[in-house]
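Bench log, entry 3. Co-assembly request; chain sequences pasted below exactly as received.
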Amino acid sequence: MRLASLFIFIVPALTLLNTLPVPSRLNITTIAAANGQSTIECWQLSAPLVQSSQAGTSGAAVTQLGETGATSYTLLPPQFDGGLHNAPVVQWVSFVSGLAVISLPNSTESATIHGGRNGLILAADTRNVSTLGHKTVYPSKEETVGIQIPTRNNDIPAHTVLHAGPCDREEMDQ
Ligand SMILES: *[C@@H]1O[C@H](CO)[C@@H](O)[C@H](O)[C@H]1NC(C)=O
Ligand SMILES: *[C@@H]1O[C@H](CO)[C@@H](O)[C@H](O)[C@H]1NC(C)=O
Ligand SMILES: *[C@@H]1O[C@H](CO)[C@@H](O)[C@H](O)[C@H]1NC(C)=O
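Structure output for the full assembly:
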């Protein structure tokens, strides 16, 4: 009797896991550039999230970030000031812990990126498109870990611009 009611619970739960609604596309806060200045925008990547059929992640949502270049891992000390700089190349930056606050020299726009699930951004304000670049500080009392993943040939991934300013949490959690 008890076992039977347990199955009644478990079986639908497993079915649910395998058929979770997949969010359509990733929305990514991007440091872009226009008219020689860096900007902060919320981009929606064109590559859709699809249900993985790969062993180990089967049923999970997956999307491609494209071909990439040499990847680096950066451990930033607490309360580090990265100063004003350009993206050295077009790159994904995945903040896995800590906190990064990105601001612009000639604008009040800023983006606060928490390490973790919503810690993936794109930095595309290379020197040839932005004279001054952007400023990044890491105000956390803990270390901030960032993984830099350059895109191949500085390719900018296919996207649409959702709006100026960083993506909201609600735009990344669905
Ligand atoms: C833009 O910011 C730079 C660096 O902070 C500053 O030197 C420059 O005067 C600013 N330009 C304008 C138009 O505000
Ligand atoms: C800026 O430089 C990058 C890397 O060299 C290049 O891929 C990109 O096309 C350039 N952008 C412009 C607008 O010239
Ligand atoms: C991205 O934003 C769109 C439009 O607001 C939304 O439909 C979609 O679910 C968002 N994606 C994620 C992963 O939150």
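The pocket of 2-acetamido-2-deoxy-beta-D-glucopyranose (ligand 2) is lined by residues 126, 128-129, 154 (CB under 6 Å). The chain has a mean pLDDT of 90.
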